[in-house]
Design goal:
The chain is built from 14 helices and 11 strands. It is α/β, with parallel strands linked by helices and 355 residues long. The chain folds into 2 domains: 164 residues, Rossmann fold; 185 residues, Up-down Bundle (Dehydroquinate synthase-like, alpha domain).
C-alpha cells in the first residue's frame, strides 16, 4: 500500500514500514529504544515485531496492564519511572506497539518525559490503525472521563502492519469498523456505501478500506491539526458515544464497552438528532441505523442510565462556554460542526434507538 504523508510524519505499510524503521533506528540517532506493550501485544504481537526489527540500538520492553481502565496518570507515572530506571535520556525513542490505549498513553508519556522524546506508533488493532495512531492526539483519561488530559504532538512515523489483525477477536475488529463507518459518514458517501455488504469483502478489500480510512482522517487533520474547525468533524458519534463509554466504565454493574461499540450507538443517536434538526432525511437516517445495527448488537439503557449519561456530557472536551457541542450530519458524507441539542431531543434519540 502506498505511503501516506501527514503534516510532519508519514504512515508506512507492511514491509516498507520495517525498512523505514531500520533506516531511522540507528545508534547515531537514538541512544536506546523502548517498546511499550500491554499484556496482549506482548504475547501476540511483540515476537512478530522483533523478528522484523533490524536495529543495533539497545532495546527495553515496558509492559502495561491491558484495558481502558489503565489509561490514566497513575500508569503514566509507572512508565516514567521505568524509563528513568532503565536509563532513558532525551535521545531515546519509544515505539508504541498496541491498540488505542497504548498509542494514546505511550504518546503522552513520550511527549512529557524530559519535555519530549521521539515516538513511533505501530498500531495492532483495526481501531488504532484507522484512528488512535493517526493525527497526533496523545492523552489519558481523568477517572472515567475520556481523554481529559493530553497534548497534540505528532509521532516520527506510523507503521501499519495488517498482519497484526489476525491476532484480534471479532469484537475488536467490529470496534475498529465503527471509526471507518464514521469516516464515510462525515466525508465520503461512496466510501460509506462500500460497507453495506461487508460479507462480500475479502482481505484485499479490507486492506484498501483501511488505507482509504487513514487517508480520510489524515486529510481532515492536515487542514486543522489543533481542532479549531473542521477536525471537529471527527467527533461525530463521540459526544454521546464517549459519555456512554465513560458511564459503562464507571458503573460496576455494566459490562464495559469497547470504544467502537459505544461510538456505534453514538453515531445512531447523533444521526437521529441530525434528522430531527432537519439536517438529514429520514431515509438517510434509516439507512445509517440499519447498517450500523446490522454490525453492532443493541445496547440496553434504563431511564436512570440515560440521566447519568446526559450528566456526563458537560465534561466533553469539545464543549465551549458551558454548551455541549455536536458534530452532526447534513447528509451522508457531509458534516456540520458546533451544533447544539437539548436534553429532550437527546432523550428522543435514545427512545428511537431502543425501539
Amino acid at each position: 500500500m502506498q505511503t501516506i504523508d501527514a503534516t510532519n510524519y508519514s504512515v508506512y505499510f507492511d514491509s516498507s514500514g520495517y525498512e523505514i524503521l531500520a533506516s531511522m533506528l540507528v545508534p547515531t540517532q537514538y541512544s536506546k529504544l523502548f517498546i511499550i506493550v500491554d499484556e496482549n501485544t506482548s504475547e501476540h504481537c511483540l515476537p512478530h515485531l522483533l523478528n522484523n526489527l533490524a536495529t543495533e540500538v539497545a532495546i527495553e520492553i515496558i509492559e502495561l496492564e491491558a484495558g481502558e481502565i489503565n489509561k490514566n496518570i497513575a500508569t503514566c507515572t509507572e512508565v516514567w519511572g521505568a524509563l528513568s530506571d532503565l536509563g532513558a535520556d532525551r535521545k531515546s525513542m519509544i515505539l508504541n506497539l498496541g491498540g488505542g490505549v497504548v498509542s494514546d498513553l505511550g504518546g503522552f508519556v513520550a511527549c512529557t518525559f524530559k519535555r519530549g522524546i521521539d515516538f513511533i506508533n505501530i498500531p495492532t488493532t483495526l481501531l488504532s490503525m484507522v484512528d488512535a495512531s493517526i493525527g497526533g492526539k496523545n492523552g489519558v483519561d481523568l477517572g472515567n472521563l475520556k481523554n481529559q488530559i493530553g497534548i497534540i504532538r505528532e509521532p516520527k512515523a506510523v507503521v501499519v502492519d495488517t498482519h497484526f489483525l489476525s491476532t484480534l477477536p471479532q469484537n475488536e475488529m467490529r470496534s475498529g469498523l465503527a471509526e471507518m463507518l464514521k469516516h464515510g459518514l462525515i466525508f465520503d458517501k461512496a466510501y460509506w456505501d462500500k460497507f453495506k455488504n461487508l460479507k462480500d469483502l475479502d482481505t484485499d478489500d479490507l486492506n484498501a478500506l483501511i488505507h482509504q480510512s487513514i487517508q480520510i482522517k489524515n486529510n481532515i487533520v492536515s487542514e486543522d491539526l489543533t481542532e479549531q474547525g473542521i477536525r471537529k468533524a471527527l467527533n461525530f458519534g463521540h459526544t454521546l458515544g464517549h459519555a456512554i463509554e465513560s458511564y459503562f466504565l464507571e458503573d460496576e454493574t455494566k459490562t464495559t464497552l469497547l470504544h467502537g461499540e459505544a461510538i456505534a450507538v453514538g453515531m445512531i443517536l447523533e444521526s437521529y438528532i441530525s434528522k430531527e434538526k432537519g439536517l438529514l432525511t429520514n431515509e438517510e437516517y434509516q439507512e445509517i441505523k440499519y447498517v450500523i445495527s446490522d454490525i453492532f448488537e443493541r445496547i440496553d439503557f434504563t431511564e436512570s442510565d440515560l440521566e447519568k449519561i446526559i450528566e456526563l456530557l458537560i465534561y466533553d472536551k469539545k464543549n465551549e462556554f458551558g454548551k455541549v457541542q455536536f458534530a452532526l450530519l447534513s447528509g451522508i458524507g457531509e458534516i456540520k460542526i458546533n451544533e447544539e441539542a437539548d436534553n429532550a431531543l437527546i432523550h428522543k434519540a435514545f427512545e428511537d434507538y431502543l425501539q
